[in-house]
Write a structure and sequence with these properties.
alpha+beta, Peroxidase, domain 1, 2 domains, 4 strands, 14% strand
């Protein structure tokens, strides 16, 4: 399990460098590459194995990653510190910071039936207008909500589902007894 706080600290350092140099898009891509090699590749178990000398593991990182020197140094630092398995969490934390800086919010829209691309686009526009940000929405189907929609953006939740309305009505009716 990734140490979320540590991953966030690495991501913050990388983000400050990227922002100062104006290279946020390049860092997004390169951190994705770092995560792929350090977490998802066949070499990942070897890179995370503390029994293998660190200089050999760092040499593997040099051979596997054709990225900027600063991003490669971050990858090497993760390997040296025994945090190579946290590379995906670093990449995700960096992307959240970059999205926030660029005014992009991510929404999860849960409905009882699948939404069309036009419906998702309309929700993105409406939520974006209320937040003052560009919104990228992902649709999720959950038949248990019966109807309506549940929209989650970060830690904000707007529950307009029929299930929740029915639950509220039930509580009100039970309270009347």
């Amino acid at each position: 399990m990734a140490d979320v706080q540590a991953a966030k600290r690495y991501a913050q350092a990388a983000f400050q460098i990227a922002r100062d140099q104006g290279t946020i898009p390049a860092w997004r891509s390169e951190l994705g590459d770092v995560a792929s090699v350090l977490v998802d590749s066949q070499a990942a178990p070897v890179l995370a194995d503390g029994r293998i000398p660190v200089d050999q593991r760092l040499a593997m990182v040099d051979r596997a990653l054709d990225i900027s020197p600063l991003a490669r140094n971050l990858a090497k630092l993760l390997v040296q510190k025994g945090r190579s398995q946290e590379a995906r969490a670093v990449s995700e934390a960096f992307n959240r910071m970059a999205d926030d800086a660029e005014g992009i919010a991510h929404a999860r829209v849960t409905t009882a039936v699948e939404l069309t691309a036009d419906q998702i686009a309309a929700i993105e526009r409406q939520v974006g207008a209320s937040l003052g940000k560009r919104v990228s929405a992902v649709g999720v189907v959950d038949p248990a909500i019966v109807g309506g929609a549940v929209v989650q953006v970060g830690d904000r939740l707007v529950d307009g589902s029929v299930r929740t309305r029915l639950q509220r009505l039930r509580r009100e009716l039970e309270g009347v007894r």
